[in-house]
Design goal:
This protein is an alpha+beta fold. Among the domains are: 3-267, Transferase(Phosphotransferase), domain 1; 422-470, no CATH class; 477-521, no CATH class. It is 49% helix and 12% strand. It has helices at residues 49-68, 99-106, 112-131, 159-168, 194-210, 238-247, 259-267, 287-294, 299-333, 343-428, 432-441, 443-446, 456-470, 477-481; strands at 3-4, 8-15, 20-27, 33-35, 41-43, 77-83, 86-92, 97-98, 144-146, 152-154, 496-501, 504-509, 517-521. The longest helix has 86 residues, at 343-428. It starts with a strand and ends with a strand.
Length: 522
């Protein structure tokens, strides 16, 4: 066994026909199924039978869909079969590490080129699946295997889990903290689409560039405190980080709506961000540069020009220092010198400051309005999801009641059908042991009989039971024998006496004047 989850177990096996190693995934929903001594898998109770069968059918449909895909980043399904009252899919065995283990094994942040190669392959695989109207629904670090050559492969698709959740009205098996989008917490799968897988892929890439898992999506609805990927350290492309943040938008309409859109954002800009690198400008050499370069054939002219430049520069520096010192002295000594800023300039600066303050206040107001609108939208979505869950719950409850009523009707029909046969068996019982054997053979009819029952079979059973109990012989036969042989009426000790009773022939040994002993009934 290589792994197990809430809905299945994966084994490593050998295909003895081909001599290859394969992975076999078994449908085993541990929450409501058990394995018996014959290795067969069965639902734990009758109320789980429908859910178990629905999940098994979805498991097989998912396997058939995966078998049609041919892509190096989608796990290859080679065969499906049913056995042990459950279902199995045979897959190519993929050797490597899951994405989370691969990141830890690097001992450093991944390089941009490594993430580009992984993201490009996964995007291609998702594009193939989405074109067939098939969603993965469970993209996360533990469901991506990184092979030894650095290429990824997607595992453990969530279609069967989703089908079971729709029937059982449970979401615990279909969401993964930090990697599932908010719409996946709703039982209405109409809210999901390619943007749902895109959110999960963005969350996986967020882990790669920041070293930490994203905050759970439902906790970001009211107030998003998660640090954007664009603020992370590391030499990653600005466009790559911005694309990750776009994938992790809470509102699904604000995310990339298709793989093609995400690919353009994630992989289009190939220029890496250089943290703290100076800007470089490319300029065409001027004619002056060419003249100085060409003067190397006339060194005397270059020396003369350099001397003139140094003399002029020194004189200019002297004049600048002199004028600056004089100006400083004038400002210090004369208190009536004209101020550097005129009143007109001050009024303009104040007006500019007011404009900046008004602009900042307007931006803050708009941001508050946008936040309020987002919260209102999130509340509306939550209300829609709640109502949909209630609707699905009501439908499920109605179906359960209908099934229970149908089962009760069928049980009543069966009881009426076997009632005459059961009454005949009760009448034929000769003792209480036979009557109790009949009860254990028909627990649905005769298990626990309530007082005042109106059921004809149960009333017949109670009447027969009382009749046989009245005919039960007493436990102390010696004392019972006194009814027939009072004290001092028996012959001398050692004689055997017999008499007929309602319970059979009573035989005792006389003890003289004492009570009879060694009594028995035949």
């Amino acid at each position: 066994m290589t792994g197990s989850g809430a809905f299945g177990i994966t084994y490593v096996a050998e295909d003895i026909t081909l001599g290859t190693i394969v992975a076999i995934k078994e449908y085993y929903p541990s929450d409501f199924a058990d394995r018996d001594a014959t290795m067969s898998v069965h639902p734990r109770s009758e109320r789980h039978e429908r859910t178990f069968a629905w999940g098994r059918a979805s498991f097989l449909n998912e396997a058939r869909t995966l078998a049609r895909f041919r892509h190096p980043s989608i796990v290859r399904v080679t065969r499906i079969f049913e056995a042990n009252s459950t279902a199995y899919m045979v897959m190519e065995f993929e050797q490597g590490q899951d994405f989370g283990a691969w990141l830890k094994g690097l001992g450093r942040l991944p390089r941009q080129a490594e993430l580009d190669r992984i993201a490009a392959s996964i995007l291609d695989a998702l594009e193939v699946m989405h074109a067939a109207d098939f969603l993965h629904r469970d993209i996360a670090p533990d469901n991506i295997i990184i092979r030894s050559d650095g290429t990824p492969v997607l595992l453990d698709f969530g279609a069967a889990r989703r089908a079971v959740a729709e029937v059982s009205r449970s979401i615990t098996g279909i969401v993964k903290t930090g990697y599932s989008p908010p719409e996946q917490y709703s039982s209405d799968n109409r809210l999901q689409g390619p943007w749902s897988d895109i959110y999960a892929l963005g969350a996986t890439m967020y882990l790669a560039v920041t070293g930490r898992s994203p905050i759970e999506s439902t906790l970001r609805v009211d107030k998003d405190t998660m640090v954007p990927a664009a603020q992370t350290a590391g030499a990653f492309r600005i466009g790559f980080l911005a694309a990750i943040d776009a994938c992790l938008k809470i509102k699904r309409s604000e995310r990339p709506q298709s793989v093609a859109q995400l690919r353009q954002l994630l992989l289009e800009d190939k220029q890496p961000r250089q943290v703290g690198a100076p800007l470089k400008t490319l300029t065409k050499p001027s004619s002056t540069t060419k003249t100085i370069s060409g003067a190397s054939t006339r060194p005397w002219l270059a020396v003369t020009s350099l001397a003139v430049i140094l003399i002029v520069g020194a004189y200019a520096g002297y004049q600048y220092e002199r004028s600056d010192a004089t100006g400083t002295q004038l400002v210090t000594e004369d208190k009536h010198v004209q101020p550097r800023w005129s009143p007109t300039d001050q009024e303009a600066a104040q007006a500019e400051a007011r404009r900046n303050a008004d602009a900042a206040a307007e931006a803050a107001r708009r941001e508050q309005e946008q936040t309020a609108a987002q919260q209102e939208e999130a509340q509306r979505n939550a209300e829609v999801a709640r109502r949909e869950q209630e609707r699905i719950a009501a439908i499920g409850e109605a179906k359960e009641k209908e099934a229970e009523s149908r089962d009760n009707t069928e049980a009543e029909a069966r009881q009426k059908e076997i009632a005459p046969q059961l009454i005949s068996k009760i009448d034929a019982a000769k003792d209480i042991r036979e009557l109790e054997a009949i009860r254990s053979g028909y627990p649905a009819q005769l298990g626990e009989i309530p007082e005042g029952t109106e059921d004809p079979v149960q009333r017949h059973f109670l009447a027969a039971l009382r009749k046989l109990e009245q005919q039960r012989p007493p436990e102390n036969l010696s004392r019972y024998s006194l009814r027939y042989w009072p004290k001092n009426s028996l012959p001398r000790a050692g004689y055997t006496v017999t008499t007929m009773t309602p319970y059979g022939k009573l035989t005792c040994t006389s003890t003289g004047r004492n009570n009879p002993r060694d009594c028995s009934l035949r």
